[in-house]
Amino acid sequence: MRILIVGAGQVGYFLSDRLSREGHEVTLVDRSAEKIQHAQDRLNVLGITGNGASAEVLEQAGITTTDIFIAVTDLDEVNILACLMAREYQVKTRVARTKSIEYTGNRAKLTKEKLGIDLLINPEDAVAEELVQIADSSGAFDVAEFAGGHVQFLGYRISKENPLCDLTLAELGELRGMYRFVIVAISRGEETIIPHGDDIIQAGDRIYLIAHQKDLPSIQYMLHSGSEEKRRNRRVFILGGGNIGKQIASNLEAQSEVKLIDKDEQRCLILAGELEKTLVIKAEGSDIETLKDEGLEGADVFIAVTEKDETNILTCLLARQQGVRRTLALVNQPELLGLASDLGIDACISPRLAAASTILRFVRRGEIISLATIEGSNSEVLEIEVKSDTGILDTPLKDLHFPRGAIIGAIVRGEDYEIPTGESRLAAGDRVVIFTLPGSLAKVERFFA
Predict the structure, then answer these.
(1) Average pLDDT estimate for 84-113
(2) Cβ–Cβ < 8 Å for 330, 244
(3) Strands laid side by side in the 68-71 sheet
(4) pLDDT value at position 175?
(5) What are the phi and psi torsion angles at 363 (to 5°)?
(6) Model pLDDT for residues 96-109, shown as the tens digit of each residue
(7) Which has the closest alpha carbon to 219: 171, 187, 160, 172?
(8) Which of 99-103, 220-224, 366-370, 403-407 is predicted with the least confidence, judged by mean pLDDT?
């Protein structure tokens, strides 16, 4: 497919990298000649310097033969106008990133239908949803749901005290009678591997597993991380009263004791009027004494979502010193994501990746029902529906040449769920959850075609 992306910032660059790796013909447009040169030096894309909302520039970029148009600059107005231009050129699929509630809120006057845009994605909505999912999961730093929420993909960090530490995958396989899950990947340093039976789980590893939702309590119990998070009286502190903090508080306040901290008095008054059960506190995030007076010590979750990465990282570390069980941070800068994790923050969420994952999921809709992107490794988890006309039906998996660099983690058939073995067979209508390394995605799609 021919894909035209306007905006060479973090989201645009990420999408250009991912889609070009899959063999699509990608053209990237940005006002900054420096950003375009940087992208052309590192990616297999055609770069055009200019205004992405200009008809002349878009024609130079090949708008007349474009299949998918994606506008992800930092300016809502440019993205909307660029998509309107793409509509005039009859581009079939149009996607825009926006930040303004005027386009995406309940009282929006200009909806995506009125604008003729197929997908309007707000990064703040995407990142708030992801942080709520992680806050609701026990001990996991990464969470994604598949098969209507029945299948969960979870990431866990392995400490020296973890019962899985120093076990081989073969030894773990012997526990499947009690714990139904499969470890689909291990991240160790800069490397992400799909493990085999003789691979050993080591302290410091990040493991990714797939399991059925009903099996999560026993798995979390095994990992010694389960009982604290599902209590209805959890104490949750949120630092940052922007749209993200407000959305998180609104989602968590029904089942948790939520306290929202912001340094702006006027913003606190607005939040107190809009949130039903959340206690809003005017304070600096670094004012630990005030937060201790409000019950920070021993709290269940601390979530930092201010506009400054450094503030989010630092306050999470301070909260950890006060015995907070889990700390979650919003981190915009890619280079700080790994650092924050190394410092002991339980989960770091990137708005860039949250928005890009939503866009990728939309662009690839069809056989791919759902998708999650793994920060740092560029790996992905896919949910694919098996079609009736594929040539892989009713054949043992061991007899099929499944692509290297990918692994099937679950097969869902109606209400039934199966962790696959070599004897498993696929049937039309099955939903298959797959972990794949970056270089294997196109092969996986061809396998199920």
Answers:
(1) 80
(2) yes
(3) 46-49, 25-30, 2-6, 68-71, 93-97, 119-121
(4) 64
(5) -60, -35
(6) 998 875 665 566 66
(7) 172
(8) 99-103
Burial of 398 (0-12, 13-18, 19+ CB in 10 A): exposed
Q: Where are the alpha helices (DSSP H) in 225-275?
A: 243-252, 265-274
Provide the 8-state DSSP code for 9: S
Cβ atoms of 199 and 166 within 8 Å: the answer is no
When comparing pLDDT for 155 and 48, which is higher? 48
With tokens 């909505």, the residue in question is 125
C-beta pairs of 221-225 under 8 Å, 24+ apart in sequence = 222/163, 222/164, 222/175, 222/179, 223/139, 223/156, 223/162, 223/163, 223/164, 224/161, 224/162, 224/163, 225/138, 225/139, 225/156
Residue 226 has a pLDDT of 41
- For tokens 């992400």, the residue is 192
- Could you give all domains of the chain from N- to C-terminal order, each with its CATH number? 2-121 (3.40.50.720), 139-222 (3.30.70.1450), 234-353 (3.40.50.720), 355-447 (3.30.70.1450)
| Mean pLDDT, all residues of the chain | 87
Query: For 331-390, what is each residue's pLDDT tens digit?
Result: 988 778 777 777 878 888 888 878 887 888 788 766 678 778 776 667 889 899 998 888
Among 244, 290, 2, smallest CA distance to 125 is for 244
Structure tokens at 307: 């506009």
* Cβ within 8 Å of residue 338, ≥6 positions away: 376
Closest CA to 347 of 320, 381, 380: 320
User: Which residue, among 200, 225, 218, 186, has the nearest Cα to 407 in the 3D structure?
Assistant: 186
Residue 172 token pair: 């773990």
pLDDT tens digits, residue range 304-321? 999 999 999 999 999 999
Write the single-letter amino acid at 242. Answer: G
